[in-house]
Amino acid sequence: MSTDGFSEQERAAMKARAEELRKEAAGGRGKKAATDELDVLSKIAEMEAADRAVAERVHAVVTANAPELAPKLWYGQPAYARKGKVVCFFRSGHTDKERYSTFGFTPEANLNDGGLWATSFAVTGLDDTSEAALAALVKKAVS
Questions:
Q1: Of 3, 20, 69, 132, which is least surrounded by CB within 10 A?
Q2: What Rg do the C-alpha atoms of the chain give, in angstroms?
Q3: In a structure prediction context, what are the per-residue pLDDT tens digits for the chain, which is 143 residues long?
Q4: Which pTM value belongs to this model?
């Protein structure tokens, strides 16, 4: 573990989050929602090919199964929020310099199931089975 402070990726994520907060403070609601979705789609389009393919499918699953969630950037990566609070998010493994991407949920998600439940999943691809599982989790998260 480095004691030199934040890594280059962490500093970039913080800078991206600061820019997102500035946009939120300056934007109007309807116009902002359209701009936020364009920002998410642009960020996905910039991803490395394998991550982009997964992120595009994740975006389609989330928007189809939880239309009440608004796409937005969160720490420079795609996320989906309800009433301004992020419920779920996608993190590019390539961008994060990790061996796989992740899809995760924040405490805003309604996933509580007893005393133990998953809040993040490694994602390297989505087949029909994993896509259906993701859709069910997203639906539960917003229930």
A1: 3
A2: 15
A3: 445 666 777 677 767 776 776 676 666 555 667 788 889 999 999 999 999 999 999 999 999 999 999 999 999 999 999 999 999 999 999 999 999 999 999 999 999 888 899 999 999 999 999 999 999 999 999 99
A4: 0.80
> In the 8-state DSSP scheme, what is residue 75?
T
Taking the C-alpha atoms of residue 95 and residue 48, their distance in angstroms, rounded to an integer, is 8
Is residue 3, in this structure, part of any structural domain at all? no
Phi, psi of 10 (to 5 degrees): -65, -40
Residue with tokens 């995760």, as numbered in its chain: 104
Which residues are within 8 A (CB) of 49 and not within 5 positions of it... i.e. 6 or more apart? none
Torsion of CA 32, 37, 39, 42, to 10 degrees: -160
Residue 137's domain spans which residues?
8-141
Q: What is the DSSP code (8-state) at residue 28? A: -
Cα distances from 54 to residues 6, 49, 81, in angstroms, run 28, 9, 19
Q: Give the whole-angstrom CA distance, residue 19 versus residue 113.
A: 35
